[in-house]
Amino acid sequence: MARNDDNKMSREEAGRMGGEATSKNHDKEFYQEIGEKGGEATSRNHDKDFYQEIGQKGGEARGNNGNGGNSGGDGKMSREEAGRKGGEARARQRDRS
């Protein structure tokens, strides 16, 4: 267990232990519900540009994970393009709400 200079539990250790306890006390539906609530709050607090940016970043990260992206010519969308389009679609969906 990680301790600080006062021989007290560190924040990291307390957070890990709290997360483990929460996971033992709650089921899949609990996590789905809080995830949905978080998504709704994020949607209220951010605009189209935010979703486009995170979609693009997600696509770029996926493309740089060692698997490469789309090699081209096979009719498949690259991960970067999929991330960008996903961000744009989410932004359009948010704009309709």
Helix content: 55-70%
Order of helices and strands: HHHH
Q: Enumerate how many helices there are, as a single number.
A: 4
Low-confidence stretches: 67-71
Alpha-beta classification:
mainly alpha
Strand content: under 5%
For the residues shown, what is the average pLDDT? 81
Main beta sheet, described?
Answer: none
**Apparent shape:** elongated
Distance between the termini: 47 Å
Please report the total strand number as a whole number.
0
CA radius of gyration is 19 Å
Describe the structure.
This protein has helices spanning 11-25, 28-45, 48-63, 79-96. By secondary structure, the chain is an all-alpha fold. Helix 3 (48-63) packs antiparallel against helix 4 (79-96). The longest helix is centred in the middle third of the chain and has 18 residues, at 28-45.
Supply the key terms.
single chain; 97 residues; mainly alpha; 69% helix
Secondary structure topology:
Elements: H1 11-25, H2 28-45, H3 48-63, H4 79-96
Helix pairs in contact: 3-4
Briefly summarize what is shown.
The chain is mostly helical and 97 residues long. Helices cover 69% and strands 0% of the residues. α3 (48-63) packs antiparallel against α4.
